Task: inverse folding
């Protein structure tokens, strides 16, 4: 992609409405634009990152055996009245009526709808276990949306819903998602720590918030510092192994970890002082076993091996991609801008032509751009006639992992400078070596 032809509306000044780093940088880097309170357009650069986040989420859900579908944003009120949540949900639900005066709502979540789909088609235990997920826009009329897409009214969610004949089966499905979430966040360049969440009347130990540590996090968290170095499950993890997944779950829940809402001061103080970690955190995922809360009132039953009908046991598993993008920025930035992990960077590299119009510089940049593009790399080519300082500032701001800088003096020697955005390290090498480095 040539920058001269790309839509990248960079802001030079910090927006006054931005309260946190990620909101400020997303606006400045031309990733998003606010359309109304808590509602944003995702501009091309932001959309590229969001799509890469979604692709990683999707790959790990599929790896764990979940099956993707797509459910509508607008839902009939009848399903919510059936479950008992329509009147109880509160003003966060946007209630509307269609032209036939039928009550509708802009879905804040999808438990009722997925349960309705399940009960229409699944009648036997032989079709279980089943996990259905989708990635879809949702709406909650937050009383105080803020922090950009970190807490907005319209947002994107990956929701997965598991169905099992028994509680034991449901716990195995829960552990599948537990492991899938650890892998997902690791691939996004994040270290997520599972922290026990309130299970309400269901009880037990199967509700966890996945929290990343960030200095600008929205809440205080407390945990054992060993979590930072725990090994992440491998890609070849056997998701059918009950014992194998139990061992991962047991390890990752064996040490103390709690948000401020669930914090036990005495339990935390029992950890040796040098091993205690108190920090700020951002919730990036939530997994929850809720038994027959929806299947019972909505009649989602299957015939068991005993010939009798049983209410299925369910769980829900959420990740907010539009929340994850700013969370990644909160965890990875410096005074010059964003530092994207390579897995979600909008481009793999940016080629910076220091003197556009100079035959030698143009030729060198075109060669690099063509070779990297042909090699499968996503490349942004800054072919504008902006000043050097502006080019460097833009490259740092948008956070592309590798910068290839082609100036007249270096190009005259057949060389370019390669800069690592994260470390700031610079290396001068031949044009061919630079190409091979990125393709290698």
Result:
């Amino acid at each position: 992609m040539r920058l001269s032809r790309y839509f990248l509306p960079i802001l030079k000044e910090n927006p006054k409405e931005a309260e946190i780093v990620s909101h400020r940088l997303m606006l400045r880097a031309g990733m998003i634009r606010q359309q109304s309170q808590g509602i944003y357009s995702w501009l091309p650069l932001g959309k590229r990152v969001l799509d890469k986040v979604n692709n990683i989420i999707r790959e790990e859900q599929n790896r764990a055996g979940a099956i993707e579908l797509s459910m509508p944003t607008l839902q009939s009120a009848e399903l919510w009245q059936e479950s008992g949540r329509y009147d109880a949900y509160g003003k966060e639900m946007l209630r509307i009526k269609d032209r036939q005066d039928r009550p509708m709502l802009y879905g804040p979540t999808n438990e009722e709808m997925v349960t309705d789909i399940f009960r229409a088609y699944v009648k036997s235990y032989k079709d279980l276990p089943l996990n259905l997920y989708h990635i879809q826009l949702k709406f909650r009329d937050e009383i105080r949306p803020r922090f950009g897409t970190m807490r907005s009214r319209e947002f994107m969610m990956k929701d997965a819903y598991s169905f099992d004949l028994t509680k034991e089966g449901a716990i195995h499905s829960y552990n599948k998602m537990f492991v899938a979430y650890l892998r997902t966040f690791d691939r996004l360049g994040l270290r997520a720590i599972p922290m026990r969440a309130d299970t309400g009347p269901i009880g037990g130990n199967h509700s966890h918030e996945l929290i990343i540590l960030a200095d600008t996090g929205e809440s205080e968290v407390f945990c054992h510092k060993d979590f930072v170095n725990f090994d992440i499950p491998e890609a070849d993890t056997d998701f059918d192994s009950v014992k194998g997944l139990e061992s991962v779950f047991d390890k990752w829940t064996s040490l103390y970890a709690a948000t401020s809402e669930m914090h036990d001061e005495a339990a935390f103080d029992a950890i040796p002082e040098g091993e205690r970690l108190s920090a700020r955190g951002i919730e990036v995922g939530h997994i929850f076993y809720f038994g027959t809360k929806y299947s019972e009132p909505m009649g989602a039953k299957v015939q068991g091996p005993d010939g009798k009908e049983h209410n299925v046991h369910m769980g829900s598993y959420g990740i907010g991609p539009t929340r994850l993008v700013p969370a990644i920025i909160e965890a990875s930035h410096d005074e010059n801008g964003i530092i994207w992990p390579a897995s979600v960077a909008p481009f793999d590299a940016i080629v910076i032509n220091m003197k556009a119009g100079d035959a030698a510089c143009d030729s060198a940049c075109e060669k690099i751009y063509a070779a990297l593009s042909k090699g499968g790399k996503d490349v942004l080519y800054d072919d504008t006639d902006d000043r050097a300082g502006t080019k460097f500032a833009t490259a740092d701001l948008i956070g592309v992992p590798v910068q290839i800088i082609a100036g007249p003096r270096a190009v005259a020697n057949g060389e370019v400078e390669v800069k690592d955005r994260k470390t700031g390290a610079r290396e001068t090498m031949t044009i061919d070596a630079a190409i091979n480095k990125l393709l290698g």
